[in-house]
Amino acid sequence: MGRIVLENVTKSFGETQVIPPLDLTIEDGEFAVFVGPSGCGKSTLLRVIAGLEDCTSGKVFIDGEDMTQISPSKRGLAMVFQSYALYPHMTVRKNIAFPMRMAGMPEDEQNKRIEAAAASLNLTDYLDRKPGQLSGGQRQRVAIGRAIVRDPSAFLFDEPLSNLDAALRVGMRLEITEMHERMKTTMIYVTHDQVEAMTMANKIVVLQAGVIEQVGSPLELYHKPRNKFVAGFIGSPKMNLIEGAEAAKHDAHTIGIRPEHIEVSTTEGLWQGSVGVAERLGSDTFIHIHGVDGCDPMTVRASGDVEVRHGDTIYLTPDATQIHKFGADGLRME
Amino acid sequence: MSNRTLPRLLQSPAVLLLLVWMLVPLSMTLYFSFIRYVLNNLRRPEWTTPALSNWRGFGNYEFVLKSKDFLFAIQNSLLIVCSILFLTVILGVLIAVLINKSFPGQGIVRVLLISPFFVMPAVNAVLWINMILDPVLGLQGIAVAGLNEMVAGLREMPVLGGFFSLWPEFNPISFRATQTSAYAVIIMVTWQWTPFAILIFMTSLQSEDQQQKEAAILDGASTWSQFRFLTLPHLGRPIAIVVMIQAIFHLSLYAEIEIVSRGNGNKNLPYLIGEFANNNIGAASATGIFAVILANIVAIFLLRMIGKTLME
Fold it and tell me: How far apart are CA A233 and CA A126, in angstroms?
């Protein structure tokens, strides 16, 4: 069980309000990702749910119970921190045992759970080492192990992968997603990386300046961004937002077209521009194009071996069905 | 091989200087401890100059071992050092944890807490023994007199007076007496050195990882458990450092002992050496060698203990 409901939650530090009144429901078993730029209040929101920060007003319900005034340890949530927050002078075994020891669980039950967690996280060979002797990925797994043994109603992850190198991050991303599929426990995951959000979540919560911009499944957010901010934030490379005359043709203040929905040609097309930097990834080429009216530079995803050179003239044709229209208020127009 | 010669050559002046620095005094002490050497003796004037012809063998050592003050001085040295270490570490940890929280006036409180450390040892001793611990003129005398006066006043009370008249008169404690002067030294040195412990522990507490604490809170650790399982182990290294540095310093306490009681009933090894050195340099040297041995025993224990914490 782990249904988390936030009702009218606000958070202020002194005079500055970092989270204006906010409502959010996370259903039992969901993998929810809070994503947004740095300083958008996503970590604060997670800490409010964990109880590490008191909310200034509003209520936090976990499984229908009002937990607003309940101490963090009694909320039945486990958290994995960005810095791992392992206890440096304890062995891996003792680290994992710590929450059970604090709860006064019998020794043999503790050992059973430690063995099970260690086996599922490939830590069995490292149980008697200290955190200082482990690599970053192993430390992160110990932190997850420490969370698992508590058998929490929900897991909270606070940017757990940002201290890992790129290759390890992809691996751990898969492991955590796999873990969620297996355990079906509610997870809330905070990240600033929209790729992590897109690949892991059932439900993405996009935040900006403490305000929820949109909540939805990854593909919902991709296909129907509610406003310009979400449109620009979700998807990589970023959506091209075009203003001015070109947008007026579609009766909109701004139109958006994703790089993957633009056709490239050297001979003819709707828009004309000159090639700037071409980033070659092998499978794809991201071409930055200058000189298109209303959007400079415009990014286009072309095939991996497209023949373009810096300064070439290039023609672009957007896929008309994939154009997003936004009004002057930044909101999506249908 | 050859690529090591140059560095060794370059190091050698420093090493030589250090060796001379340590070896010359040590070997002179050793030499003096085996001969008869006094500063003033009218009957045997030849003893007043150090010479091999005055060889006494282990005579000086025997003399020191048999002197009534020697064992007492060693006991007292250990009592004073251990008590001070115990008190400063406990007080230091408690106060450091207390002032680690932010509160208004934090800066001033910290400066005030550190300030005893900047008082000269002799001044510290004079202040404490004369102005605070003195049974008549010190704060202690005034406080005890005031207490007695208050009790005397309470005796006049109509109903409870009978109860208070059962109370005895309070007597101030004389800290210059034989049994108590060591306590006076312990009190004043603890007062002076607790700030040192606080300073070291405070810097260490500030480097404590806050996320670890938050993780522990979520793991259900009480404030006590957080202190016991996170803060104390975190302080292990600084505690080892405080213990080591203070042990070295307090084995050689002198000024406080001189001022409190002039060694009356309260001597440590350095003070005993000082007493012998008034005339009998041979005996003083022998005591010095005993002090070196004692310091080495303490150092071995300490280094073992600290080595362990530092390895972790």
Answer: 40
